Amino acid sequence: MPYSHPQGIDKNQAFRRIRHLLPGAALLTAAAGYINTVSLGFFHTPVSHMTGAVSHLGLDIAGGRFRDIATSTSIIIGFLSGAMLAGLIVGAWKLVPSRRYG
What is the pTM of this model? Predict the structure, then answer.
């Protein structure tokens, strides 16, 4: 396989390539959180996967609903555990542009 081993990368060069993307990514994240929170307030259901679960957890904490806090926390912990397991299976410690992670 041509991408079986992690490739070296210059951190300064990689940051220069993606530096212009960070403000847009932060804006999209804030918009997703806002939409999820408003949707949860009206419909009591998350409208997306992880941002919805995190928004739901925030509303549960604010409302003092302890049974729902445990449910939302278990969803988030399950996702993080799966992501960590997938990272271990892939075996790369660095995110490298144009590398095939599938």
Answer: 0.50
For residue 86, how far is the Cα from the chain centroid? 14
> Tokens 């490298």 sit at which residue?
96
Distance in angstroms (rounded) separating the CA atoms of residues 36 and 54? 9
- The rounded distance, in Å, linking the Cα atoms of 96 and 94 is 6
Residue type, 78: G
Nearest-10 crossing angle of helices 66-90, 50-63: 150
The answer to whether the beta carbons of residues 97 and 14 sit under 8 Å apart is: yes
Q: What is the mean pLDDT of residues 1-21?
A: 66
| Whether the Cβ atoms of residue 55 and residue 40 lie closer than 8 Å to each other | yes
Contact 20, 4 (CB under 8 A): no
Q: What is the pLDDT of residues 46-74, one digit of tens each?
A: 666 777 788 888 888 999 988 888 888 88
